[in-house]
Amino acid sequence: KMAADTSVDILQKVLENEILQSTKVVEEHLDAEIQKLDQMDEDELERLKQRRLEALKKSQQQKQEWLSKGHGEYREIPSERDFFQEVKESKNVVCHFYRDTTFRCQIMDKHLTVLAKKHIETKFLKLNAEKSPFLCERLRIKVIPTLALIKDGKTQDYVVGFTDLGNTDDFTTETLEWRLGCADVINYSGNLMEPPFQSQKKYGTSLTKLDKKTIRGKIYDSDSDDD
């Protein structure tokens, strides 16, 4: 018993010492930074200020440029021809191929509207699949909704139905954001190794099955039961 107590005491002292040491390191680092600032002369501070201002100006210009190209809002484009033009002028594009009669497209719309405002570095578009047979053929779009994820004019990835989004109609905007982050088509600040729907599962979210077969290359809704 005594020996056990002693080892607990030793362990506690070691831990306290560790904490003290790391606190000391942090404090020393802060002291060094403050000292560095104190020692800076007027010219150096002025240069630092200028650099900060230039960086701010640059990011404002970038923001304006994105907005002028139609970023920042989720828009419908009228035709396939517009698709090529829109994709050519932006580095990152998410395009939702939808159909009016598919209710899952409305679910997708809701989330994309939110993400378009949040991620102005990316252009968010929607295109009616029935009005774009050439593109659907070329991009092999068989299930609606499908998101085409495009970087530098090339389609890199697809989100087909809701399979990647936890296989449920009530997936969160965060889940879709994570999926777009995986494709590197938005600037994602979360942890890509942890899909948001994993934490939902712990609390017993009922997951509905969505996989849909495609027959003879026809386009099917991921929520219809056609055979």
From TrEMBL:
Localization, UniProt: Cytoplasm, Cytoskeleton, Microtubule organizing center, Centrosome; Midbody; Nucleus
Residue span(s) of domain Thioredoxin: 80-163
This protein's UniProt keywords: Cytoplasm, Cytoskeleton, Nucleus, Phosphoprotein
Organism domain of life: Eukaryota
InterPro entries on file: Thioredoxin-like_sf, Thioredoxin_domain
SUPFAM superfamilies recorded: Thioredoxin-like
Signal peptide limits: none
A Gene Ontology term for the protein's cellular component: centrosome
Main location (coarse class): cytoplasm
Function: Significantly diminishes the chaperonin TCP1 complex ATPase activity, thus negatively impacts protein folding, including that of actin or tubulin.
Subunit structure: Forms ternary complexes with the chaperonin TCP1 complex, spanning the cylindrical chaperonin cavity and contacting at least 2 subunits.
Protein name: Thioredoxin domain-containing protein 9
Organism: Machaerirhynchus nigripectus
